[in-house]
Amino acid sequence: MVRLIGKNRIKTAVFISGTGSNFKSLIKFSKLKKSPIEIKCVISNNKKAKGLLYAKNLKIKKKIYNFFKDKKAENRILEFLKKNQIKLICLAGFMRILSKTFIKKFDGLILNIHPSLLPKYKGLNTHQRVIDNNESFSGCTVHLVNAKLDSGKIIMQKKIKVYKNDNSLSLAKRILKEEHILYPKAIMKIILTL
User: Does the domain made of 10-192 have the CATH classification 3.40.50.170?
Assistant: First the structure.
């Protein structure tokens, strides 16, 4: 388990696949005096992920792994994380399911942010499914990662109203803003309880 020792910050890796807006928000959070994390690296399964540009500009170590070509990608990631003393993984739009073995072998915490009010709407296309089902509310959830998809212990949630004129894009945009606020709060909460 992760332990905060004195004023040491927890060495953190952020896993991304796309634009990296949550990654950017976590970087801002990590720069705050009160922040308990230090982002040491970013890992992606997509070499074209826009979020990798933030890493390059801020001189944060970045690693790209091709899960389709490299069957041992997870083992290589675990070795890299161990070498860099990473104790916290923040999944931020990482479009790849980590195996049970990876989750079991990683010596630390793995968090994920999901764009729905779990346990509702696990998996993909959450916003469209919310709209199709005429839900009155949606939101986002930060949870611990376990072997089942989007099923780990919930740390924090933010609920927002779904408007009649919302479509999947407008809803996604509003929820993403909330994700940027919720993720740092949830990290603070989970680390203070360790």
Answer: yes
Show me where the domains of the chain are located.
10-192
CA distances 134 to 115, 118, 168, Å, are 16, 17, 12
Asked if 42 contacts 23 with a C-beta cutoff of 8 angstroms, the reply is yes
pTM equals 0.93
- How are strands ordered across the β-sheet holding 88-91? 61-64, 37-44, 10-16, 88-91, 109-114, 137-144, 154-161
Residue 139, beta-bridge partner list: 159
User: Is 114 in the active site?
Assistant: yes
Selected catalytic residue, list 114, 127, 143, 180: 114
Share of the chain above pLDDT 90, in %: 89
Query: What values do phi and psi take at 184, rounded to 5?
Result: -60, -40
